Amino acid sequence: MTGASDPDHGPPAIDATAALEADIAHRLRALQRPAPRGCGKWSWRSQLGLAVIVGCCAAGLWFLPNHLFDPEVLQITYVLGVLAIWRFGWWFNHARRSEIFMGRKWPVLRDGRDALWRAGWRPRHLHVQMTTFHEDPAITRHVLGALFSEIRATGIPTTIYIGTGALYDEQVAEAFAQEHGADLDAELVFVRQNQPGKRMAIGLVMRAIMRSAPEPDDLIVFMDGDTVFLPGALARSAGMFGADPELEALTTDEEVITYGPGWMRRWLDLRFAQRRLAMQSHVMSDKVLTLTGRMSMFRARQICDIGFVRCIEADHLDHWLWGRFRFLSGDDKSTWYYLLGRGAKMGYVPDACVVTVERITGSGTERMVANLRRWSGNMLRNGARALQLGPRQVGGFIWWCVLDQRIAIWTMLFSPALVVMAMFIQPGYLIGAALWVVISRLVLSLYLTRYARQADMTWPFLLYANQVVNACVKAWIQFFLQKQKWTNRQDQKAGHGRSWTDRAKAAVAGFQFVTAMLVYLYAVAWVSGRTEGFGPF
């Protein structure tokens, strides 16, 4: 994340930095308190919001005409019903697996880990790989302060490698370390990158770690420069490797501190609640769908290899139209794919939590779409090759989850397209469809409240908007996989060439996209029994 500091105009104002540091500390203290349970999650505002939504839906069902079962649109309703059974059935299957993990599997893993830790087990050495780029010093100090506290509490000998892009970041980190880390059994190493991009910074740090000749069972932490450890996160994560000799990598729970539009905070809280449910479901298969770059931990024997380093530094995709292009972001997906191809066991630690500090400037909507483009692009680029590994290598359930991510693009767009088509037949159909959207997303949101610190009645609307916008973004990206944009690290871009060959390729991709959409709309019309408007087809 790009901090508030500007290399051309010097560090941020001291007063602003101090105010930010104090506010982050206040929010971190709130996150360290146990999450409320049951009714404690419901403020009077959320209770009022729930009452208003339920009341409006009840009034709509009672007083407004129901055209869902009119004979001329009945086939559309049946198709929507089948889609709903499929998609919601799959969603609640994840919910069921999540409950089984937390109720049966996790307590056994946790108790074994805690018993081993109390008996005195510790890893021989911990290597921390952290990248930062013109980060706000207030955030850097919180990140290092939390990391130092965790190292002090665990007593693990540690080497902290900080991949930097400027002297400014090094000065902030070094000054803080001299003041607060003198008593630690730890060494601070700066690795200045000589090529742009986070991937190159990680690669250079990994090369430095490999030169130190770590033991196979040493642990290596990957973390971002805006990631703050909550108390106990390091011990709880490291202990998992002692309790399970076959475990090769894991990731943790996450929270977020957001500075920006209020709806962005609610949207990110929603996404992190969804993440918890999904992670707990996926890890039932001893795999996850991403080894999150904000904080993941690896056993050295799996990643201290030049092949792993090159996978991060120069990861690429060969495309029939776009040729070979390198990835800008998505290093967490590259590490995941590398380990996935080796059949490595992965884990998720729900009681170890890290906090990301998100500072959003400019338009919140533009930032949302940019994030979805980046996340979805990383998912699609890596998902395609993960599918090629096959269910035997990946595992049947995880392989299907990767495939379902691609199928869900089109099933999500199918319903709105059918509703629009039904409106041309019976305009009142929109009323019933809107009620269904609100009621169904309200049910999902109420369930997701189990995975959140507080209830939020904007979630039903944010959830549906997120699903539709994300599906649209993914549908477009499938044809323009080479186009990448990352607002972090000097607003990196790729795939936006202006040469005549680039324009010709873009025209071909655009033609494919338009053709695919027309075929898709025809399929929607055919399913609804209304193809008379598609004469040429």
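Second entry:
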Amino acid sequence: MPILKTTSLKQSSLQLSQKIIDRNSEDNAVIDFEQHIQQLSDKEDEQSIDEFISLYKNLIKNVEQNLWKNTITDKKLGQYTTIFRALEKIQQLKSDDRRFDFKIIIPVADRPQHLEQCLDSLLTLCHNYEYGLTDGKFSKLSVLIADDSKQDINISQHQALCKRFDDKGIKTEYFGLQEQLSLVKKYLVEHQDSRLKQIISDAEHIDDTEHFSHKGASVMRNITYLKLIEDVNDNRIGAQTLFYFIDSDQEFCINSHTSDDKYYAINYFHYLDEIFQTQDVELLTGKVVGDPPVSPSVMANNFQQDVKKFIQSMAALEPGHHCQFHRQLNAQADDAAYHDMANLFGFDNRGKTFEFHCTLKGEHSNADCFSDFSDKLEHFFFGEHPTRKTFFNYEQGFTRTSPARTVYTGNYVIRADALQHFIPFATLKLRMAGPVLGRILKSKLEHRFVSANLPMLHNRTIESTGQSEFRPGVENEAHKINLGSEFIRQFYGDVMLFSIEQLTDIGYPHADISREITRSIIGSTCNRILESYIDKHDTILQLKRQISELLDDSDSWWHRQPSPATDLALGNFRTFLNNIENNFANDAQAYQQITSDQSSQRMQETLLQAIMDHKKDVIAWQRAVFQA
């Protein structure tokens, strides 16, 4: 094959680019790049290769913008991924691929189905975009499964998944309880610093690994930081590696308000490499789309508003008529629409209600939809919100970053240097650990702490079964669900977050804030948040009564035209209301605890001590881990 001049090859590339992005040529769904790449390969010219990489990156931007202009289609997405695969082939022509490697860390506790779903999504993403694909292996990617499981059967399944995905071309390592326990004990014995116990747990007298399980996500991440630091120091991890922390109930894809499908439409590794290559970033956080990243204890008010609206709408319809709940979803802004206390975060969602979007396929009736919605009610107590999901919005692309103040601990990426910033207050096991860490890092890292529009799809339940796996703080026995522990963790997590926010505004953690000022801030914050919780609590109980009255209305078609399916659906609604009563009534355990002066004072002192000791924790971590 004759070797073309560079200018000639560029011209043919530009012509090919135009064909792809020209709407009139969209029927050319399959583009053959092989001849193009062969011509480039024959040149054996690093400068030409770099020029073509730049050319294809510009082409990708154009195709990407066209992809998101209107409704996304499989044809457009196929063209998009084809160009990325061509770019990978061009990258392989370079003598030295200096792009970042990625170590993907997935903490997991008794969630084999979630983990499998997560890893399947990673494999699909890898096959679609082929980042670092060499000789059938994804050489620039590896996975670390950090297992905090208690059940032996789940541990065995997690280990089997590691081997299975390792065999499929993604190097996958298992970090189990015994290795974790040995590592923690090593640091506690070597350094004899009691402050380390507040970061990686007190394992000094633990010998049985079962008693070292369910330590909590924050402690688990901190222990994993220790392992990563040792691997870096021992050169088991390359210097050009980024650490990508995700949650096991997430997938490497996104959703769209125009469809019930999910899309592998973001080449996460390509764009993260672009950002870290070209910007001065130490920690980058993405977000999530799909199910909310908060506890159901702060969603019961607005969800019941939507349940009430659904029942009112359904009562006005004929049960046998074609389902009327397939209207196109509205693309919601990221405005915490799912959060009862959105006002605490600067949003105002008062009075807003959202319609249920039916997900049944094929011919079905309003009565079928009524039953289907009732089946989803129990999912709410495990964190799913059937009416207020968050949808992906392309905005201004994937490489634009903005200053951040919250770390989404299920989706963040760090350089090795950032391993010095452990998750604070980990052993308290409070929710909102990411936002708390974010407020502290904002003052430390400043412009090097950013967010980017690189969300992952969040699923509280398993796609194939519609069921939930282990969720800390949620107990389920014979459909009686107790959120008590999670409710309390959420409440005091909020108190910690907004106390830290005020403290960082006056110089914490760099400045020494007095104990008296800190105690005052915690107390006033606790009172303010308790008022919000009490206000929502009263509304929750009012809505529960209103929903019950709507269901009991004898004029409704589900009473006039009863059927076994409808009776079962009504039973699901009543079980849901009973669980609302169990968790939000005046005598509910969690509500009693957060409104108890004695319990509140005790917990406020715990928060106070943790905040005052944080600087000591940082010193202990630096000495033990970095010999600082």
